[in-house]
Amino acid sequence: MAGKNCVAIAGDTRFGVRNQTVALDSNRIFKINNRTLFGMTGLNTDILTLRESFKFQMNLYNLEEEREISPKTFAHNVAQTLYSKRFGPYFITPIIAGLEGEDYTPFLCATDLIGAMEFPKSFVVAGTGEESLMGVCETFYKENMEPDELFEVVSQCLLAAVDRDALSGWGSVVHVLTKDGITTKRLRTRKD
C-alpha cells in the first residue's frame, strides 16, 4: 500500500500445504536494497529458488553498475525472469514495493506468474486471502497517509482479511519503507 513518500508491504507467516500447516515462521518478504522490498506468494520451493536467484542478480547488478537497482528496474527484471519461464512457470505471484527517485515517490508493482505487470497507485494484493483483502483495502485506503497511519491501515486490513481466510494466519509481518529506512513489526493473528 502506498502512502505519502512511504510504502508498506505485509504478509502472514503461515506455511502450509493445502489445509495442513507445516510451519509458523515463513518469510515471504525480502529486502532487495534500502529502497525496494519484494514479496512473493505461492509455491514455497519457487519462492526460495527465486529469492536466491534475485539475490545473485542484484549482487551482480551492484558490481557492474556500481549503484543499487531502482524499484522500477527491479520490477522489470522480475517480469523478464518470469516471462523467460512462461512454458514451465514459477508458481508465484510477486509484489514489488519501493521508493523511486529523489522525491521518494511510492512505487508498487505486481505481476502474474508469467510476468504480466500491473502498476497500481494505491495498493495491490496477492495470495489465498486476495478476495477478502481487496475489499478491506478498498474500504480503508486513503491517499497521502503518513508512515504511522499507513502501518495502522495495512495492519487492520491484513488482520481483517486473515480472519476471513482459513489458509492464512499464525502471525504476520508488516514492513513500512520510508526515506529514513525500513520499520518492521510483527502482529499476532488468528491461530487456528
Automatic annotation (TrEMBL):
Give a GO cellular-component term.
nucleus
Q: Where in the cell is it found?
A: Nucleus
Q: Which domain of life is it from?
A: Eukaryota
Among PROSITE patterns, the record links this protein to: PROTEASOME_BETA_2 (PS51476)
Q: Which InterPro entries match?
A: Ntn_hydrolases_N (IPR029055), Proteasome_beta_3 (IPR033811), Proteasome_sua/b (IPR001353), Proteasome_suB-type (IPR023333)
| GO terms under biological process | proteasome-mediated ubiquitin-dependent protein catabolic process
Question: Which Pfam families does the annotation name?
Answer: Proteasome
Query: What is the protein named?
Result: Proteasome subunit beta type-3
Asked if the Swiss-Prot or TrEMBL record annotates the protein with the keyword Nucleus, the reply is yes
Indicate yes or no for the key word Cytoplasm. Answer: yes
Going by the UniProt record, its keywords in alphabetical order are:
Cytoplasm, Nucleus, Proteasome
